[in-house]
Amino acid sequence: MFKRLLAMMGNGGATVDLVLKQEEYVLGEELKGDLIIQGGKVAQQINQIKISLMITVKDQGKYSNALEEFSYPETFIIQPGEKKVLPFRCYIPYQYPLSNKYTSYTFVTNLDVDWAIDHSDRDHIIVKAPPRLQSIFDSLSELGFVEKENSGLMSPYSQEFRFSAPEFLQAELEELILIPIVAQEGIYLYLDLELTSLFDVKVISRGVWFSNQLLEDPKMLIKSLENVIGKMLESPENYPSSDGFKFSSDREIAVGSAATEIVDKKE
């Protein structure tokens, strides 16, 4: 009996492993994988398997919390040496923030076993911009905008992407901030331009819709962004600051909005 307890509590117990099909995913993609439970040296009762998708955000501190939790509540017996494979699927919503040096994701899998040390498994994933959103970032780069060191930080409502102006615009434009809302038919952008001033900081705002057709045409997208930014700089009085959002519902569907209330920022 003593040897049996040692096997259950030590290296001879059941183990769990979440095996994902890939490490990198884009917003809007379905994540697929397998949950593999490997029996140990003795039969064991599996009470529950819980998979938590953890997000870690670094700002002035480091904060982590669960974005989603997935449970396999059925109790079952895993026999010695038995291998059990369960399918795992989840969706990466457009409201998740993109991975960067400030934001990271980890799947934590916990195996609840009777009379044993709980076993866990950790798997990191990277969440990237879908091609349509990446085309906007690439177009801004083509126009001479450079993504800033603090780009991708979480705001109270979303993830903000910040760009310094190209050299020929720096006399009038300090910074461009964009907040994207990704939809099936296209992308809606909130644009904030921080204008250069000797006496005060002036921010002008505009919301712009880009259809999928436009997003798939690099030349037209560059021209359209150049036109939008140019009109804002030519007539700033027509674009008063809107604080980034006009409607509270927009805050709920912006990139990064799913993480703003879940991440616990208490030390």
Radius of gyration: 24 Å
Shape: elongated
Give the rounded overall mean pLDDT. Answer: 87
Sheet of most strands: 6 strands, mixed
- Low-confidence runs of at least 5 consecutive residues: 1-10
The amount of beta strand, in percent, is: 35-45%
What is the helix content? 10-25%
Task: Indicate the structural class.
Answer: alpha+beta
> In oligomeric terms, what are we looking at?
single chain
CATH fold annotation of the largest domain: Protein Transport Mog1p, Chain A
Terminal CA distance: 45 Å
Task: Using the coordinates above, name the CATH class of the largest domain.
Answer: Alpha Beta
Topology as a string of helices (H) and strands (E): HEEEEEEEEEHEEEEEHHH
Number of strands: 14
CATH architecture annotation name of the largest domain? 3-Layer(aba) Sandwich
Number of helices: 5
**Count of folded domains:** 2
